[in-house]
């Protein structure tokens, strides 16, 4: 005969399944989202390029290197010849730049590791964002302070939609787009944002067709 | 409460429009076929894979998926920027280059899109002078339409089966060795001045080639030049040169004509330069209000062609009897001076009395419109008919108005028959073939293959590994025009550059380079040759001029001169006319008409999948050619009619014999065809071609002789007793008995400008409501639920909409190929088309009305209507199809789980489902399991793990097919529904471009896209400019203006779907004095018979003579 505790077995099984099920759900919910899985992704790059030195200390504008960001959907990683514009004078023979010099010489690409990546079915366009008052900082974080670049934001669909549902607080004047440490809410009155929404005719675009084609 | 769907307000008896003969017959089988939601086979599991087998495979895949968990880690992807930045290049922004596609006697000026270095889409060059014109209001307009060949030519560039090896005696040799052989050749012939050297060319209009030819003739004075075109399209030029005594070529200005008569001239479908013909013809047919006038088209033809379909009056004559019609026209129109000419032409014999009356009235109409009328003769007709046409035009005073003549270069090339004579005479030592494929398409009586073997060595430059390549000693791969430097003259004589967008993919040679190397010229780079030619043709600053030439894509003011012509010399023409008595074809002595195929031309597009799958505009048959017979002939011959089993048609096969030669092919019933005539399309049945063209159709060239290239008599047809499956899009998505296409005669339209709306059917009243809120006989029927779009669209900046003018649409199908190219639509193969699984987002529906002998044919482009109240959306369980604010019905592929409910619920049947992963699978391996098969000793599954993108495609195919894809459009997977998106990618790009422009101009709020800035692919390619797209929110946009016209209507409006795509009803312009005059178009007549006269029930008090039937009687 079965011992008496087995009478509680069905209940225990049900509760057990519920607990395990909840744990699994919660685990997937947390660990499998871009917020956990992608934020902080910081691969080792072939050249140790510090954004902090170039942007924060030297004061180069983002668009000096990422020159296509205002024109194309794609914000380009600069060609090695762009680096050499300065580095044929500065740190001319630095061993850390050997790969850059070589690449500018023979035209072969430096194999940078991609960090910010959207799925193929998302048609994100850089140019329309930076031309309509959205700063780099919203998606890339304070990249100007990063010694080694890492992904700062989840870049998930809900991340996009959070802003698309209410774009107003994320707008800023066009001349401050690449000033990542400039906080518009410290410098501008609240009325400016609603004003910009109206006069720029910014839409809250939540149609599927906005990003998926 | 259960919703009861509204009944269709139409009678249950008999169909009004019919699309196939079975439907006409209304058999029970056909009824059942129609009732099915999907055609049989389209939705059933017919694979030989059993359930048990399936479970086995599935468990194996789960196991492997577990093993593959290591793949959960994020794969490292590289960003590879340039080492050295190319000038003016921005990744992600397409670049456009002006170039041109050479054709037989001209070129199509193009603007080609290059996405990161690979050409991806072809558009017409709207800056070219031939594309500038004045619209009906006299405003200057630009035009970017092309024909379907130009649109499809990009796929041939990436054809994995094109010739890509240099071979000697069939064995591959390296490129340098092959080029050295050419050098040896030139050395060999230099001392003998080319004795025994013969060149066989194709026709083209390149001034550089002409210059090279002259240069080579200087060096090799004894070399001989021949030309071979299986379909010779320069008869109009030959005839005009003869008639006017100097080399001239005619060009027709159909937009200026009031009356057009076609003598077997299918200028819309299969003549040269159809895009411009279609535009000019449509310009003369477009009307904006009921007081406008339009041109009238008379067609005299044996085949049912697109021109015949667009004609107001059509006379059905055997191909050989067209000369009789031409003779009678000449008799009525030429005065005393043409007496000799008429006498010569009258040898053909008289027409029947009825046909004679038709011609007489037609001649009267021509006379009434002297100076604004034109007669065209087609390439299937002999020189005599062309001469008669020129004489008639001259007598009608059309020269200089509707027909202009421009200088042409005289023809210096001898024919293929001459070459065969020379070969058989043993005087040809070395034959150099440039492009032509005579082993396939030479007339059968010339016995080309034997003749070619008589040459000691044969060198050949060819684009394909074809029949001729197999026979040659040396084969050189030719470069595609998108890989070539070259030049050409467009049809108006303007000089255009052919400039490359990509390096030759397989190291192919251009024609110029090849010829220069054969002759051992020092200047043997095509680029240098073209520049040298340009230097001679253009004056002024050379470098600046050259840059502008390449930038604009044409040399300004280089059009051919229109010389002053002496009046036509009637006695010369009369002498040149040789007409013998026409024998009337009978059941036992059929007449054969060889047709230039609408899709494959003479066979040169045989391995192009887009064109193979493009349904013929008349028969809607895909992937092969058929033997066309009229219904009466078929009955006379005692052949069984075609039978529909599922989506494919099962037809009898027959053997056609003429002059001791025979072919076998499937028989197809073609209404409107001349009796006792068999029509054979050329270009199929290739023995050596690529994977696409392999096994498609029969070879009609086997019956063709040099004496009877287009019309042959004395053929005999016998049934073989076998049957044949023909895949067609004809019977799919039947929309019987509703006013889908609306049309009226011009006179009726003038009386009732709103006739199109008078054909609206009553909106069915929902039988659901017993609630007191539903008022009986309420004025405006309302849908059950409020439409969320009504609220959402209030804040949208744009409301996208489209109008298609059925008066302008000629049915040429350029839009279908343009859409396929723009939207990454794969081909599905003959077997899948047979199961109604084709994926075209836009199709051309074609309906016949009236009897089977003398039907009227009408076309309608059908695509997603972007209904505001879309029935597809409400049934999607996963919200994969929804509306956006701006009124687009969008498909979200990632959400789609493939229930296909949306397709079931779509009244327009425009949604397409990916039953297989057509992108990653070759067409013959769709049913192969990727798990259980091995290729070349390697398991498919292993292959798949190595390269998941490629699927089971061979490496070479995959690498090339990837290149043609538009990067702005998702490539769809298996199990996903898709449909027209109104070119969403272009809309979004247009909106973004406008926003950037607004920012740069400092007016941030100026974000509304200006009218005309966004064009859909179909609109841009349409040569007739029948499609207009734009913002319907703006009342001044061109689309809004068209929608405000009285002919505007929507299809199936009674379903209250509120389509954003509307049509402008078609207006016919028949002549009341003609014996075959119909008081109303046959479709309207049939509508009236079923639904009652739509014009009477509205009480306007006309049309009393017509029978009155209560509207809505059923």
Provide tags for this entry.
heterodimer; A: 213 residues; mainly alpha; 1% strand; extended; B: 1114 residues; alpha/beta; seven-stranded mixed sheet; globular
Notes on the protein architecture:
The complex is a heterodimer of chains A (213) and B (1114). Chain A is mainly α and 213 residues long. Chain A is 41% helix and 1% strand. Chain A has helices spanning 9-31, 34-37, 51-57, 62-65, 80-87, 98-106, 126-130, 137-140, 157-165, 184-187, 190-199, and one strand at 112-113. In chain A, helix 5 packs across helix 6. The mean pLDDT of chain A is 91. Chain B has 1114 residues and is of the alpha/beta class. Chain B has 36 helices and 42 strands. Chains A and B meet through helix 5, helix 6 and strand 1 of A and strand 1 and helix 33 of B.
Strand content of chain A: under 5%
Low-confidence stretches of chain B: 1-19, 66-71, 768-778, 1098-1114
Amino- and carboxy-terminal Cα gap of chain A: 65 Å
Strand content of chain B: 15-25%
What strand order characterises the main sheet of chain B?
Answer: 8-7-19-18-17-9-10
Q: Structural class from helices and strands of chain A?
A: mainly alpha
Task: Provide mean pLDDT of chain B, rounded.
Answer: 85
Kindly report the average pLDDT value of chain A: 91
Summing up helix and strand content along with how strands pair, one would put the structural category of chain B as alpha/beta
Number of strands of chain B: 42
| Chain pair sharing the greatest interface | A-B, 49 and 42 residues
Computed over alpha carbons, the radius of gyration of chain B is: 30 Å
The string of secondary-structure elements of chain A, in order, is HHHHHHEHHHHH
Helix content of chain A: 40-55%
The number of strands of chain A is 1
């Amino acid at each position: 005969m079965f011992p008496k505790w087995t009478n509680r077995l069905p209940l225990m099984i049900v509760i057990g399944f519920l607990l395990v099920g909840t744990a699994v759900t919660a685990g997937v919910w947390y660990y499998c989202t871009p917020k956990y899985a992608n934020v902080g992704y910081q691969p080792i790059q072939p050249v140790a390029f510090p954004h902090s030195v170039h942007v924060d200390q030297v004061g180069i504008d983002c668009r000096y290197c990422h020159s296509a960001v205002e024109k194309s959907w794609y914000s380009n990683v600069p060609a090695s010849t762009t680096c050499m514009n300065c580095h044929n004078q500065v740190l001319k023979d630095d061993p850390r730049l050997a790969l850059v010099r070589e690449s500018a010489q023979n035209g072969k690409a430096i194999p940078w590791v991609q960090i910010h990546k959207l799925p193929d079915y998302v048609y994100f366009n850089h140019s329309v964002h930076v031309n309509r008052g959205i700063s780099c900082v919203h998606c890339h974080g304070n990249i100007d302070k990063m010694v080694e670049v890492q992904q700062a934001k989840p870049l998930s669909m809900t991340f996009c939609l959070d802003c698309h549902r209410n774009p107003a607080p994320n707008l800023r004047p066009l001349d401050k787009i690449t000033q990542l440490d400039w906080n518009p809410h410290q410098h501008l009155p609240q009325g400016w944002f609603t004003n910009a929404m109206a006069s720029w005719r910014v839409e809250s675009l939540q149609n599927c067709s906005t990003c998926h084609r | 409460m259960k919703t009861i769907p509204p009944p269709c307000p139409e009678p249950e008896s008999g169909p009004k429009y019919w699309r196939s003969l079975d439907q006409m017959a209304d058999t029970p089988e056909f009824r059942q076929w129609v009732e099915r939601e999907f055609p049989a086979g389209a939705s059933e599991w017919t694979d030989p894979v059993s359930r048990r087998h399936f479970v086995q495979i599935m468990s194996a895949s789960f196991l492997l998926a577990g093993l593959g968990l290591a793949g959960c880690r994020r794969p490292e992807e590289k960003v590879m920027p340039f080492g050295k930045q190319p000038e003016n290049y921005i990744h992600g922004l397409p670049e456009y280059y002006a170039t041109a596609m050479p054709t037989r006697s001209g070129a199509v000026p193009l603007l080609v899109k290059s996405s990161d270095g690979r050409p991806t889409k072809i558009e017409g060059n709207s800056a070219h002078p031939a594309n500038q014109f004045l619209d009906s209001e006299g405003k200057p307009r630009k035009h970017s339409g092309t024909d379907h060949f130009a649109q499809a030519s990009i796929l041939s560039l990436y054809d994995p089966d094109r010739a890509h090896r240099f071979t000697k005696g069939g064995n591959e040799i390296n490129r340098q060795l092959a080029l050295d052989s050419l050098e040896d050749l030139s050395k060999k012939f230099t001392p003998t001045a080319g004795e025994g050297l013969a060149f066989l060319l194709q026709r083209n209009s390149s001034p550089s080639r002409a210059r090279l030819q002259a240069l080579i003739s200087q060096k090799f004075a004894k070399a001989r030049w021949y030309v071979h075109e299986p379909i010779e399209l320069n008869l109009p030029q030959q005839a005009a040169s003869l008639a006017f005594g100097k080399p001239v070529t005619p060009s027709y200005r159909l937009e200026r004509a009031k009356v057009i008569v076609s003598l077997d001239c299918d200028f819309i479908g299969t003549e040269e330069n159809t895009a411009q013909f279609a535009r000019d013809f449509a310009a003369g047919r477009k009307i904006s209000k009921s007081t406008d006038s339009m041109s009238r088209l008379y067609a005299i033809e044996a085949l049912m062609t697109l021109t015949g379909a667009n004609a107001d009056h059509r006379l059905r004559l055997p191909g050989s009897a067209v000369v009789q019609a031409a003779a009678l026209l000449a008799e009525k129109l030429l005065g005393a001076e043409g007496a000799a000419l008429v006498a010569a032409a009258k040898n053909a014999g008289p027409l029947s009395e009825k046909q004679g009356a038709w011609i007489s009235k037609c001649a009267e109409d021509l006379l009434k419109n002297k100076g604004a009328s034109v007669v065209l003769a087609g390439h299937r007709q002999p020189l005599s008919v062309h001469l008669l046409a020129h004489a008639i035009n001259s007598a009608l005073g059309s020269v200089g108005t509707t027909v202009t003549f421009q200088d042409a270069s005289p023809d210096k090339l001898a024919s293929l028959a001459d070459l065969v004579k020379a070969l058989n005479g043993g005087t040809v030592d070395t034959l150099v073939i440039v492009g032509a494929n005579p082993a396939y398409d030479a007339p059968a009586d010339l016995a080309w293959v034997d003749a070619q073997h008589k040459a000691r060595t044969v060198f050949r430059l060819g684009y394909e590994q074809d029949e001729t390549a197999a026979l040659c000693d040396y084969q050189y791969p030719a470069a595609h025009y998108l890989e070539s430097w070259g030049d050409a003259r467009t049809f108006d004589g303007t000089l255009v550059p052919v400039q490359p967008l990509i390096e030759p993919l397989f190291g192919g040679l251009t024609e110029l380079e090849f010829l220069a190397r054969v002759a051992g010229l020092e200047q043997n780079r095509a680029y240098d040759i073209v520049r040298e030619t340009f230097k001679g043709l253009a004056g002024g600053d050379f470098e600046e001029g050259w840059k502008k030439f390449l930038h604009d894509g044409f040399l300004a003011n280089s059009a051919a001169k229109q010389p002053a012509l002496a009046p036509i010399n009637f006695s010369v023409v009369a002498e040149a006319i040789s007409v013998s008595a026409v024998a009337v074809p009978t059941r036992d002595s059929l007449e054969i008409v060889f047709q230039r195929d609408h899709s494959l031309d003479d066979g040169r597009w045989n391995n192009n999948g887009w064109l193979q799958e493009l349904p013929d505009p008349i028969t809607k048959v895909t992937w092969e050619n058929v033997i066309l017979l009229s219904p009466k002939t078929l009955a006379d011959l005692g052949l069984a009619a075609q039978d529909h089993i599922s989506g494919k048609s099962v037809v009898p096969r027959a053997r056609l014999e003429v002059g001791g030669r025979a072919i076998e092919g499937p028989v197809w019933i073609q209404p409107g065809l001349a009796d006792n005539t068999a029509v054979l399309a050329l270009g199929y049945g290739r023995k050596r071609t690529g994977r696409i063209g392999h096994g498609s159709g029969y070879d009609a060239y086997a019956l063709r002789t040099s004496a009877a290239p287009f019309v042959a008599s004395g053929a005999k047809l016998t049934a073989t007793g076998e049957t044949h499956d023909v895949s067609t899009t004809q019977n799919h998505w039947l929309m019987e008995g509703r006013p889908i296409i609306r049309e009226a005669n011009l006179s009726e339209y003038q009386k009732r400008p709103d006739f199109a709306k008078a054909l609206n059917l009553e909106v069915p009243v929902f039988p659901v409501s017993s609630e007191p809120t539903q008022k009986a006989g309420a004025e405006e029927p309302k849908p059950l639920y409020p439409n969320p779009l009504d609220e959402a669209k209030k804040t949208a900046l744009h409301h996208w909409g489209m109008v298609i003018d059925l008066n302008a649409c000629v049915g040429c199908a350029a839009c279908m190929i343009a859409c396929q190219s723009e939207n990454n639509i794969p081909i599905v193969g003959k077997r899948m088309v047979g199961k109604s699984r084709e994926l075209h987002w836009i199709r051309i529906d074609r309906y016949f009305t009236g009897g089977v002998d003398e039907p009227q044919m009408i076309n309608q482009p059908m695509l997603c209507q972007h209904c505001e109240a879309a029935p597809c959306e409400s049934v999607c369980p996963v919200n994969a199809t929804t509306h956006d604010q701006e009124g687009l019905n969008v498909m979200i592929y990632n959400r789609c789980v493939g229930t296909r409910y949306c397709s079931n619920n779509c009244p327009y049947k425009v949604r397409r489902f990916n039953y297989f992963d057509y992108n990653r699978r070759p067409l013959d391996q769709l049913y192969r399991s990727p798990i259980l098969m091995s290729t070349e000793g390697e398991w498919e599954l292993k292959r798949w793990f190595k390269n998941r993108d490629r699927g089971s495609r061979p490496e070479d195919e995959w690498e090339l097919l990837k290149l043609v894809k538009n990067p702005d459009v998702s490539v769809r997977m298996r199990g996903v529904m898709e449909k027209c998106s109104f070119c969403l990618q272009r809309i979004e790009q247009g909106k973004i471009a406008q926003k950037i422009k607004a920012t740069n101009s400092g007016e941030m709020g100026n974000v509304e896209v200006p009218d005309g800035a966004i064009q859909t692919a179909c609109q841009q390619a349409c040569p007739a400019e029948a499609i207009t797209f734009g913002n319907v929110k703006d009342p001044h946009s061109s689309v809004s203006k068209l929608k405000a016209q009285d002919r505007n209507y929507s299809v199936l409006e009674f379903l209250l779907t509120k389509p954003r795509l509307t049509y402008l009803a078609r207006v016919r312009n028949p002549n009341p004095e003609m014996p075959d005059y119909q008081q109303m178009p046959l479709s309207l007549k049939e509508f009236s018979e079923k639904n009652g006269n739509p014009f009477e029930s509205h009480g306007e008090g006309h049309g009393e003579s017509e029978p009155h039937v209560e509207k809505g009687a059923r």
